[in-house]
Amino acid sequence: MTMEDVATETVGHSRGIVKTRGFGAVTGRTVVWIALLVFGILSVVPMIWLILAPSKTAKQLNDDAPFSFGSFAQYGVAWHNLLSQNNGIILNWMANSVVYTASIVVISCVTAVLAGYALAATSLPFKKVFLIITLIAMIVPPVALVVPLFVEVSAIGLYDNPLSVILTSSFYPFGVFLAYIYFSTSIPTELYEAAKVDGAGEFTMFFRIALPLSRGLFGMLAFFSFSAAWVNYFLPYVLLQSQENFNLSVGLGFLFTSSPALNPLNGAQQSLIGRPEIALASLFLAIPILIVFIASSRLLVRGVLAGAVKS
Amino acid sequence: MFAPYLILLALFGVWPIIQAGLVSIEPTVINPAGGVKNFADVVADVRFVPAALNVVVFLVMYVPAMLIVVSLMSLLLDTVQGRWNLPLRLSYIVPASMTGATAVLIWYFMLEPSLSPYQDALHALGITQGNQIWRQGGLAWIFVAMAFFVGAGNWIVVQYGSLQSISDDVLEAARIDGANAWQIGWRIKLPLIRKYLVYMGILVFAAGLQVFVEPQLISGSVYTGIAKDWSLNQLSYDLAFQSNNLADSAALSLMLLVVCIVAAVVVIFRTDFFEGTGVGKK
User: Do B12 and A134 touch (CB under 8 A)?
Assistant: First the structure.
């Protein structure tokens, strides 16, 4: 099983059909279905609630049934109120999120593909050491490095500079590992050897052979890089100070703590930011990632883990 | 080719650890001499033990809950092939899009008895006031629920993928031998994806150890101060940003980091997860 299969495998092949045998088996199937459906419903309920919430006024949100719909016009009102916050700073946050995420995805994927290829197919010294360090860095959660990164970023004068978030988040050991596995399993070594015999250098081999064969790999790398970068909270929260530098995720957290929406004791009482507005801002954060998830669900069919390590 | 990544690795993977190490032994107000005594100072901080206990309680609930539910749900999902499989998987990954601040908002509403879609269930449990849920001492399970909700669905889909890698012949042979669906799941499929589950368990543990966002946001917004310094990472954050004690903050985060690195080394060298990748157990 290779990463190529991971990317191209389609859904719905017909194995694992369990034949129903008698009453016990039928009851068993029913229980399985109930469990699967209940879990599905529990998973979707909050999203449905969140989509409906900004259609209501704060009062309706309080008094009406949780799944009632207010009006489409109310979405506009909530958006208008969001814009009132600090001269439309939410637009800054959205733009920042887009710029930061796009930069991170590009830098992290390009460096990861190059490094994965170098580890898999070139004569790099200390290969094993680099590989082990990469694996360790991939397992240690990024959150563990936040305070050390803050110490470093302040020392080199990048504190409150968007570059600090972009550069630190572009370190992508998991991507390097995926690319390494991809290049060492799904492209036959004979191909590299043949090219070498024909006199191709390492860069020629990379650009003429490896790269054209790695579209599926790029999709996978971009997917994971995007999902981490778009919702990143702790790192930008610590590395950025000025409101206008926040990404949407940190900005939303700021709305939480600075508006009376969730706690009447917080912030300016005359603020227009109430619960519907907060819900709308949350939707802006959640919907792009949901769309990417659904669009990439095909990538996840054959298993990231199984596909990654089985050769 | 390796150089661009190597620069990032050196600058943002290795160097911050070295620098944090240097900062962690700098003099502090309580320890003007500096040195490794800072580490002892952190452990002796009145907030350390309660936060450590909170994190332990959190992990004791969170890691097993993830492992059990994810194994079970991915096995169940694997028995349902055909057109309903994809919609189910898609529904399971929906919550993963609601992380951080969004998750806090959602859970505030889901658990507020006067607003929740689950109000009947909450009332049935005798909960009619928000403060019956949001109280100090009972917060761990809420944070577990929040973290579980965000993470479980994605892992179910991933482990369902692991199950797809089991060869059809193995399952066919078991079926011919008369194994029923339950036996196939428990005796064959589960042992075959064991290493992926172990890997997941360690990643979940390492991430859980660092719990920060949920208590920090709850404490900063909905119920002011309710979960202040609730987790070790929050304590590390407060040491740096409230007490201006960067040395102790760095010391604490290094201690947490060491635990994660040990966990990583265990996965790499003591499990068969990275078998065949050029490193790890042979």
Answer: no
pLDDT at A268: 59
Tokens at residue B15, please?
A: 């160097």
Task: Report d(CA A5, CA A213) in Å as an integer.
Answer: 12
Rounded average pLDDT over B8-33: 93
Q: Whole-model pTM?
A: 0.87
CA-CA-CA-CA torsion for A297, A54, B215, B209, nearest 10 degrees?
A: 0
Question: Measured between CA atoms, how close is B158 to chain A, in angstroms?
Answer: 5
Chain A residue numbers with beta carbons less than 8 Å from the beta carbon of B82 are 12, 14, 17
Is residue A235 assigned to a domain?
Answer: yes
Domain count, chain A: 1
Domain that holds residue A151: 84-309
Rounded to an integer, the average pLDDT of A264-268 is 66
Tens-place pLDDT, residues B69-117: 999 999 999 988 878 888 898 899 899 888 888 888 888 888 888 788 8
| ipTM of predicted assembly, 2 dp | 0.87
**Among residues B44, B13, B74, B127, which one has the least CA distance to residue A301?**
B74
Residue B95, Cβ neighbours under 10 Å: how many?
27
At residue A216 the predicted structure's pLDDT band, cuts being 50, 70 and 90, is confident
Of B1, B78, B274, the CB nearest to A117: B1
pLDDT tens for residues B156-196? 988 888 888 888 888 889 989 988 888 899 899 999 888 88
pLDDT in tens, B143-158: 999 999 999 988 998 8
Residue A2 lies in a domain: no
Contacts B77 to A, Cβ<8 Å: 36
B276, A173 Cβ separation under 8 angstroms: no
d(C-alpha B160, C-alpha B170), whole Å: 17
Task: Kindly tell me the burial class for residue B191, based on how many C-beta atoms sit within 10 Å of its own C-beta (0-12, 13-18, 19 or more).
Answer: exposed
Task: Give chain A positions within 8 Å (CB) of B105.
Answer: 50, 256, 262, 278-279, 282
A142: in domain = yes
Give the CATH number for residue A88. Answer: 1.10.3720.10
Contacts of B16 in chain A (CB under 8 A): 145, 148-149, 151-152
CB B93 within 8 Å of CB B100: no
Residue A12 lies in a domain: no
Domains in chain B and their CATH numbers? 33-270 (1.10.3720.10)
CB-closest option in B105, B253, B254 to A278:
B105
Q: How many angstroms away from the CA of A102 is the closest CA of chain B?
A: 17
| Residue from B6, B12, B118, B237 whose CB has the most chain A CBs within 10 Å, to mutate | B12
- Nearest CA among B135, B221, B195, B270 for reference residue A282: B221
